[in-house]
Specification:
This protein is mostly helical. The chain has seven helices and two strands, in the order αββαααααα. The chain has helices spanning about 1-25, 40-50, 55-70, 75-95, 105-110, 115-125, 130-160, and strands at about 25-30, 35-40. Strands 1-2 form a two-stranded antiparallel sheet. The longest helix has about 35 residues, at about 130-160.
């Protein structure tokens, strides 16, 4: 039984990493030219609802970093690995503190990591003006992802109870 659970989690983490990558790759370039906007954050946060903490952050971060590499934004891959992994980790921890109940609060707080993380990273890269210009769209992307993940998480939990 324990092996079945490990296998299930491993397979699901691969599926979720692929979902993060694919949802991230369906994107629009930011007006600043530095980065792009996408719905991958919904899949990143859904990792927190579906996977154990020990692998959720890795699936989220790896999927986002792979999307950056494939889309030609390789310079962002290390940042996406850390930022999306941290976003998922924070959501996982908040959901755990809230005793497993899905909470929009957990998703929204975790979503704050995106605009703050990329602002910091782009500032370090010397893209100060682009970093500031990207804040509103990065925030909108993260907020949309948080709300989509929350809704999907509710639907999935409701369906789990029905089976």
């Amino acid at each position: 039984m324990k092996q079945d659970s490990k296998t299930r989690n491993l397979v699901l983490s691969g599926v979720m990493a692929a979902a993060v990558m694919l949802m991230t790759m369906v994107s629009l370039p930011l007006p600043s030219g530095a980065g792009y906007i996408h719905l991958g954050d919904a899949a990143v946060l859904l990792c927190a609802a579906l996977l154990p903490l020990s692998i959720a952050w890795a699936a989220a971060g790896l999927g986002a970093a792979l999307a950056d590499i494939i889309l030609g934004f390789t310079i962002y891959a290390p940042a996406s690995l850390v930022i999306k992994g941290l976003m998922c980790l924070i959501c996982c921890l908040l959901l755990k503190v809230l005793r497993g109940r899905l909470s929009v609060f957990a998703y929204l707080v975790a979503a704050l990591v995106v605009p703050l993380g990329y602002l910091l990273y782009e500032t370090v890269l010397g893209l100060g003006a682009a970093a500031v210009t990207n804040i509103p769209l990065n925030s909108l992307q993260a907020l949309a992802g948080a709300l989509l993940a929350f809704a999907a998480g509710l639907a999935l939990n409701k369906n789990r109870g029905a089976s």
